[in-house]
Write a structure and sequence with these properties.
With about 80 residues, the chain is an all-alpha fold. It has one domain. Helix content is about 90%, strand content about 0%. The protein is built from two helices and no strands. Helix 1 runs antiparallel to helix 2. The longest helix is centred in the C-terminal third of the chain and has 44 residues.
Length: about 80
Amino acid sequence: MKETLSSFEEESKIQFEKLTSVYGEINKDLRKTIKGPLKPKRYIELERRKAILSPQLAEIKRYDEKKKDIEKEIRRLLSSLKDS
């Protein structure tokens, strides 16, 4: 049980850091874009960044689902411990 909690906490920390990084990159790109009209070269650059970041975001979503499953399992185990 403690192993599961420790694993969950470590995985949550890693995914939070990845998510923070991805959102930081997106915000940085948005701030640059909002400052003026979007030039074709900048548009191509942003599309390239989007292509790189989209799979990372999908991975984070998968980890988030995994996290929810682990939380559900922890609650189930805790409940079974209380019933024992």
